[in-house]
Design a protein that fits this description.
6-stranded mixed β-sheet; alpha/beta; TIM Barrel; disordered N terminus; 6 strands
Amino acid sequence: MLKFNSLLLSLLFAGLPLLLCGQETDDQAIHADKIYYGASYYPETWPRESVSEDIRHMKVLSMNVVRMAEFSWSKMEPREGEYDFEWLRSIMDELHENGISVILGTPTATPPAWLWEKHPEIGQLDEDGRRKYHGARKSYDYNNQVYQHYVVRIVTEMAKALGNHPALIGWQTDNELSMKPDYCQSTKVLFQNWLREKYGTIENLNQIWATDLWSQTYQRFDQIPLPRSWTWHHPSLQLEWKSFQSESVVNFQAIQLAAIRQ
């Protein structure tokens, strides 16, 4: 039932973002002279009564930290606006009683079925016009305003309910943040506005990109396309598209950090 690994090393090499808890008390501080060894732990997938046995095995292996909850949105909010964190709190209580710390993951990598049903537009639109839907993870659009609203809400409620728990030593935001482009119309407008803010005028963009080559000169920002993998696009356009995606990921994480810290 346990996925054994060196948790903090796995987080480092997977590139997972961590927010360390403030050191209000000695128990909640991450100590420089302490080695943390643990596992990714998913108790939501099996009976509650098995947790005590899991903890017994953890202690045999000298584990002192687990990462939890990053895929359990549907259990935290089974229906829109109805929150249940008690199952998670009770497990954190038992872990803490046994000297095991917790890193909580925000559950935003896996939106619940009710959210997909209500707002299918949160799914990424790929470059061939196919929209992703419920049934996998990381299928959402980072820039979708509707999705960001629900993200802030669940992260805020989670932080209010569990942010001061004595077992908690840190947060993981989302899961394996990466650049996955979305090609919907709203993303296209955001990208064009991003370019407008960066370059100021279309004449300035044309000059810096040297768009006279191949007759790629633009008269307006709304003429600039979203690059497709099957087109030999201008390298400046491709670079800025990557930069825009990167900034989108950073902004998506920033709204979660703000919700946790408020």
